[in-house]
Amino acid sequence: MGAELIAKNQSGATRAPRVLLAASEVIGFAKTGGLADVAGSLPRSLADRGVDVSVIMPLYRAARLGRTPVTPTETTLQVKMGWQTVTGRLWRSTLPDSNVPVWLVEQPDLFDRDDSAAKRGLYQYVDSHGAKVDYSDNGERFVFFCKAVVATLNHIGAMPDVVHCNDWQTGPLPALLQEAAASQGKIAPRTLFTVHNIAYQGWFGRNVFALTDLPDHLFNWRQLECQGQFNMLKAGLVFADWLNTVSPTYAREIQTSYYGNGLEGVLIERRHVLSGIVNGVDYRHWDPAIDPHITAKYTSATVAEGKAKCKAALQQRTGLAPNPGVPLLGVIARLVEQKGIELIVRAADALLAQDVQLAVLGEGDPHWQQEVSKLQHRYPQRVAALIGFDEALAHLIEAGADLFLMPSLYEPSGLNQLYSLRYGTVPIVRTTGGLADTIVDTTEETLANRTATGFRFAAHAPWALRETVEKALFVFRQRPAVWRQIQQTGMACDWSWSRSAAEYERLYRQLAGLRHG
Which end of the chain has fewer surrounding CB within 10 Å, N or C? Predict the structure, then answer.
């Protein structure tokens, strides 16, 4: 669907759009990453704006046994998958702290796995050698989920105006909706397809394509085939009415060979229906004025005193030397190359020569976990290597650190830089994706107009990170009034989900041809 159809549709009725958001994970039920945060937080803010929104996801064991109650319905789903028919069942719940309906698709053989165990996840398991391995039936699992979503539409009330699909796990859904509507002589709901990270595409053999029961003629290089395989992300990019990603800069970046992961040609061809909306922050959980995880609550008016207390608590908890004057650099990230951990490790000796402390919280690639642990061994009391994840400790690092390092190779949206802004922890970021869209570099001009919120660099190189940290340290040590201004400007920024939801509502209305009242 192009801009012409949107313009034509804008003559439609005035009412709230009806939206079904389909995602493979939703916070409060099951989570591996940022997709779950979006799928759980965005609908709440949409509902606050009057949007008639509901969510659908698979019923994993973690969701069935989790804290949020889920209830079976009487609705069974008969889903044709190639030569066989697979039976599912619909369960129901609501998003935590809201009335937003959540539909969960039960299919025990595909989704009822011990995903709460340390070595198993929603999409992968850890083998005997410590390597993460995709489940061999992931293609079957999520083709079934997509087809179950189509089957569910007749059981959940009024037909949605827009089905909002997310990442490769829902990539076939736009094509399936179009085929189902055409076979019944109906008009399909409009579809929005959001790419949260184009590096994850869902590559499967032609046998998985056969399970979709889509016409064979669609398996060609312009539509569903990619290098001889069925690419589920490409399916969404080709067949959705509108494409979206999680920041305007990332929307531009993925149209290049450097960031497009082989799909840049498709994105360039469809660039007239591609946009970017930065993810939001749930300030109910990430605000130092009300955060129950930190030692001292504070606002922009009391940031100096509050952060000093939190810094002392962080140093004590992590084994860093107690020193209120030393700059403390925080890192919370998956320990993988995408997050720039290589730059941090390679620049560490030069950074630590600047008389700083470093607290790193995360897990990921065993090699980088080991490298971070080696830093702590070389610099006891100056480096804290915190392998794993601890929610309360993540909040304390945001509150207790002076600067936050986020030198990502690529970053579609990013959340920790936004948390850091609210906590007065000045971000140092690489100029890419959502980091470029949310952090204003500190220059004499941005200081003069009071828009500076952090420090940025472009080159993906250790020297660039080191030079930028040195620049930030100079301001921290020699220009305390300027430092306070940068902190307070960042703390005043609004990166809430209400801002993002307003942009999504506008997009839904355009797609559905609905005017504002």
Answer: C
